[in-house]
Amino acid sequence: MKKEKVAKIEEKIRSVFDQQYQIIKMLGNGGMGCVFHVQSNGVETADFALKVLDKEAYNDNKLDFMREADVMKGLDYPGIPKIIAVTEDEDYVYMVQEYIRGEPLSLVIRKCGKIREEYLRIWMESMAATLDYLHKQGLIHRDVKPDNMMLTHDCEIKIIDFGLARKKEQVDQADKKVFGTLSFTAPERFTKKVGTAQTDIYGFGATMYYVATGKKPENMKTTPLESFATMEKKLSETVPEEITQVLTKAIAVKPHQRYSNFDEILWDLSHENQLKDAELAVRQDQFIKVFLILTTLFLVGLISVY
Length: 306
Ligand SMILES: Nc1ncnc2c1ncn2[C@@H]1O[C@H](COP(=O)(O)OP(=O)(O)O)[C@@H](O)[C@H]1O
Ligand SMILES: [Mg+2]
Fold this sequence. Notes:
Elements: H1 3-17, E1 21-30, E2 33-40, E3 47-54, H2 55-60, H3 67-73, E4 83-88, E5 92-98, E6 102-104, H4 105-112, H5 117-136, E7 139-140, E8 149-152, E9 157-159, E10 166-167, H6 173-176, H7 187-190, H8 197-213, H9 224-238, H10 241-250, H11 262-305
Antiparallel strand pairs: 1-2, 2-3, 3-5, 4-5, 6-8, 7-10, 8-9
Helix pairs in contact: 5-8, 5-11, 8-10, 9-10, 10-11
């Protein structure tokens, strides 16, 4: 969004919310609106994220500007920011949301590169659990990518930006047009197939591929099978076999080859953790046995010497 447009929005915020909020800084600036960190003006200050949507830009793209607010109002989950208030005027929709202290995952990876396995596992579980909740509400996000995942200061992942979310059975302009970053777009979207739960599962796999390897996923537009093979190889060189298995199944080229739902992903992740714990317990057990045998031998030796 151009500078003049942003300046106009800031002016608008001051006139609409002057008594209520003060702008701290701009957090994001997309094609159809921008997001600000604002603070309440009362005795006790509190932080919020104020997302302002430009109705004209939504109409130009044949998208519903009230969709995001309507979707968010119905959600109540720790991995999703709460919506506090929604107002609108002739030109804009103003959404006041819970402020997430943290940074988008895209920025974290750009700064740090690939992430340690223990964090990768925690984030995979937390992101899958939130998307599982969303799907169980009958919704799909349709824009799952590192820009729309926030890593909080408590090391949790929260999902933002429900601008393209819709009910599973609805189909709209965003299903006919590819919006957003190519790297995280599922292959079927390039052949104009309607997004499904599997499209979000691809977004999950591609996002976690980026976290695991520090490399952007290969473009799935022209030679998806080759891209998939390159990613599978990269994963197997970087992360343990079990994680490679989960992620390659999530980013399979054909939607029906992917997981059916996030429950299955969560099951595989927890099962894998259980296996790891069991393996660890066996190793501890073996270590204790060897230790006891060696101690006994040492004592027997000591006794026989005296
Ligand atoms: N609830 C929030 N708390 C903190 N920061 C947020 C919040 N929502 C959005 N942001 C910031 O604003 C940026 C853009 O938000 P997003 O909803 O993704 O808008 P867009 O539709 O322009 O992509 C995010 O990358 C993030 O930095
Ligand atoms: Mg976004």
